[in-house]
Structures are given as structure tokens and as C-alpha cells.
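Methods, example record. To illustrate the input and output format used throughout this study, we show the complete record for Chemotaxis protein CheA. The sequence lines were provided to the predictor; the line carrying C-alpha cells was produced by it.
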Amino acid sequence: MSEFGGMEELLQDFLMESNDLLSDVDNKLVELEKRPDDKALLNDIFRGFHTIKGGAGFLNVTAMVTLCHRTENLFDKLRNSELSLSPEVMDVILSATGVVQDMFGTLGQGLMPQPCDPALLAALDAVLAGESPSSAQAAAPAPAPAPASAAPAPAPAQPAAAPADGGPDWNALHQSVTGSQPAAQAAPAPAAAPAPAPAPVAEVVAPAAVPAPVAAVPPPSPAKTQPTVAQAKAGGNVSGPQENTIRIDTVRLDMVLNLSGEIGLTKNRLTTLRTEILQGNHDTNTLRSLDESISQLDLLVGDLQNAVMKTRMQPIGRLFQKYPRLARDLARQLGKEVELVLSGEETELDKTMIEDLNDPLVHLVRNAVDHGCELPNERIAIGKKPQSTVQLTAEQVGDHILIEITDDGRGMNADSLRRKAIEKGLIDVETANSLDEKQCLQLIFLPGFSTKDQISSVSGRGVGMDVVRTNIQKLNGRIDISSVPGEGTRMSISLPLTLAILPVLVVRVCNQAFAVPLAMVREIITIDPDAIQEVSGKPTIVVRDEILPLKTLAGLLGWEPTQKPCFGVLMQSAEKAFILAIDSFIGRDDVVIKPLQNIRPKGVAGATLSGDGSVVLVLDMEDLLSANEAGGGTRMSELISI
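The corresponding predicted structure is encoded as:
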């Protein structure tokens, strides 16, 4: 039961606005530390915090009002030059904003926040009195345990047993894909707190996921204050419950409405033409009008689909805005000087992908500060400026989004990574010696790999990068690394614009159509039987001096091939490239994947319907490859025996 009886809608409006305001305040505080004499910036911070305090007062959130009021007093003294801004003072301010953020989380669950820890209030009072914050022995308030969700998520249904012959039950699949499904089953989601009441259409808001509060003086341990990918792997909901609403520009909604109206007019025209044709009017003009109306409907539906997709697009800056403070807090804890430079914040990405990107990007930014950036004295000794620079950029490249995290730190040495992987027993010496420089850099994605000898609160357990790559691949993306020892490292993430529509290549094998993600396809080749060579008993083909393994799609599916494969699809999976042998091609298509209800054959991500109404399975290539490698893979004898 909410403690804000009759005011839930006002509470949600307050949280929507205040989350954005507080994120903006945090970023401006980081900027203020670089320009402490910028009065205009300080006034902006003061106004944002004052607005938050006013909303909290209207809702009678006494604990937040008390904390905001004392922090406001501190801002006022800074404005009037009665106090000077030092790193210690900034630590206290950021601790206060972190606790306010924690209170937002409590309010989002319909509960009244508990009073602020007296140690933080004492630290604020000490700063206001002109004393050192440490004299108040400020300590981080222990985060209150989050209240339990109203109801746990129902256990997922067990997959149906596969048919005896190993192939999928096509009747069951067709019924699963075409039958009406409840929304909750069509798009399963992890358990979360109850969704807030929806806002009006013109102001449909989803505040960006917010980081956990930062502790008070001294600088906090990031392991306790920021969500980590390792925690995500363990199943913890580190970013809070996902929001079910988004903020949409009314111009985009108007576009959807206009297109809907035009489609309605075209439908009326088609209805009239249908009546004329049923009455026996088959003259040339009627058929020409029918063709024109169908073509117009096709264009309008395409435009409507694009317009609806744009309503899901959100600027990635809403995700980026939390990272300057993250980098600042971690650098201060490690004794480093780091500046995080953002660019491309206006680049738009599907809202669902923005939420799922949070944990991987948090880890990559932390990794750049912890592993990449050197200490100031180390940088000076090698002729660099004492302050490191980490750049986080985003841009749209074709139908993909490219996100890059670049640092000017120590970089990575391929030989060192190779030796470390051998020491940890992750690869053998023979495999290590066969790796080129790019493949050595990919070793950091192995589970258990870490360049740190000592485990700290920030890193050293070897779980982060493995989960980063796994999460990126779940978004149908890929991550690449380039590094120069002594100069820095660049992590490049390529993602599709949206997950709602998946570009696929439709192929045929054993008289059955399958779809493979187009993002994995590099090129299409013709397979010449004389070009197939045996390496360690397995078939390979040389393509432009690159030796690539040949895998048959029939073999991956566990089927008996009906003919020798005629074509090959050169595919890239993570750092592995291979050729997928198939019988023929059907073409390229953009499909909407539907989940298979109560059935999940191995290696199948979902299904879609072709133009003739038949079921086309969308393959999960990573799943198929892992199962194939466990079973020994395609052998040369299998191709010869066809």
C-alpha cells in the first residue's frame, strides 16, 4: 500500500522531472569542480536543487527536504564566495546528491524515505561552519534494503519436449507463432517493482536508470556505489526496475496519427474497389486503381512502421549523463586525474537497448579509468600530461549505432595478454602461439581472465569483460578492441538501431527456410568442392588468404543433408569467422521475431512468418555453434559422404 494515498500521479510526475534534474545537477557539479569560479554554472545547480526541494516539500518528504535545505545553504555560501570549493567539499556535496538519488528509489516504490544519516548532516554542517568535513567523521550511510516486490515473477514454463526424430514440431511452431498470445507471454521480462501509473500521452516519460548513491567523505568504494556487470550476471537488479513508459515528442505522435488517417483513407478506397471487382467490373482502369492503391498502402505502412519505431527512440545522452560522476568518483578513489569527454549524446537508440547497455558501459568506463589510465606521476615520467582523458562517443553509421570508449592510457600488450592467459590456464601454449595480435586482445573476454594480480573492490575477478561481451551479443551487437601499448585503448561497440525489427538473410537447407541475423553476414560465396581442404580432419576453405572452417547448416541442426552444399555464407561470430554451407538463398528481409510459446528448440531465437504464411525459424547462431563445438563439429568425411 502506497504511503501517498491520492497523490500517486503527482509523485510520479515529481520523480520523472526530478530524476532528470538531479542527473543534470551531478554533471554540472563535475564541471564546477573544473571551473569553481563559474557563477552561472553554480546558479544553474542551485536552481535545479531548489526545484527538487520544492517538489519534495509539496509531497511532505521531510527527510529529503531536510537534506536538500542544508545542501542548498552550502550552494548559497559558494555563490556568495563565503566558501571555497575543494575536492573534500565536493565529496560531501556529491554524497548528498547520492542520498537524494537513493531516496528517489524509495519513493518510486511508494514508500517514505527514512531520515538521512546523521553523519552526512554533520559533514554538511561542518562545511557550512568552515571546518574540514573529516572533522565530523562523515561516513557513508548504509543503503537501506530495498522493499520486496509486490509479487515474484512467475516461473518460466518448461520447454516442450522435442520430437523423437530431433526435428521441430512444425504444427506446434505454426500455432505458437500465429496464435494470439497475451502480451506478458509475448515479451517476457524479469520481475520488477509494480509499474507506475502511465503519464499523459504528450508527456510519456521514462527517467534514465540512475546509479546508486555515492558515499560521503572519504570517496566511496565503487564496488558498493555503482552497479557492476558481475552483479548483473548474478541476477541482481542493479539498475532498479525497468520503466514501462517513455518520453515522446508530440511531433512524432502527430506523424503517427496523420499516417493512420491516410491508411484509413486508402483502406476505404480498397474496399470500394473490392466491391466493384466482386460485381464483375474487371476493366483496365479498375485494376490499375487497385494496383495504385496497394502500392500506396505499402508505402504508408512502411512510413507508419518507421514512425512507430521512432517513438521508441531515445537520445543516448540520457544514459551517458551519469558517467562523468562515475569516472570522477573512481578516479578520486584511485588517486588519478581523469576527464571523461562525451560526444554524440543526441544519437538516438531504442529505449530497451539503452536500458540494457547501462551495465556494460558502466564496466567499460570503470575499466578505462582503473586499467587504462595511469597515475599522474607515471604519466609525467613518460612525457604525458598528468590528467588522463577518456572519451565516450556515439554516432549512427548506416543502420547501426557505433559507441566507442577510448582512453589515452597505458594500452595493452598482446604478448603480456598471451602470457597471462597461459598462467591462468585459460589456453594452452600451442593455442597461444597460434594467435595473432588482434586475437590476443580478444583474450580479455575469456571468463576468469584479468590482468590484475590482486583482487580489489574495483577489479581483478575476471568476470566483467566476459559478461560485457555476452550482454552486447544479446543485443545482436559486437564489440571490438584496438590498442597501442603506451598510447591507449579503444573499445568499439556496434549495435542495431532497434531490436523490434531484425534484418535477416533467409536461406534454405533440406527444403526448409531459415533466417540468420544479417549483422553476422560478411559476404556470400559459391562453394567449389575442389576448394575444400582438410585441416585436422575438418573442412576449410581459403578466402583471400584467410583459412576459414566450413560448417554445414544441416550439420549444425543435426539433420542428414540431402545434397552437397552449393553456397556459403561467410559469417563473423565474435572473434570467430566461418563459412556456413547452405543449399540455396531466398533473400534478405526485415522481420519481427515472435517468441515460441512453451517450446524452445536448441539454436532457435524465435520465429517469423514469410509472405506466403509459412513459418521461418530465426536461428541463434551462437547457440548452434556452441552445441556444434561440444559435439565435435563438421568433419571432412561428412561432406564427402553426401
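Annotations derived from this record:
Confidence is low (pLDDT under 50) at residues 135-174, 176-241, 635-642.
The radius of gyration is 29 Å.
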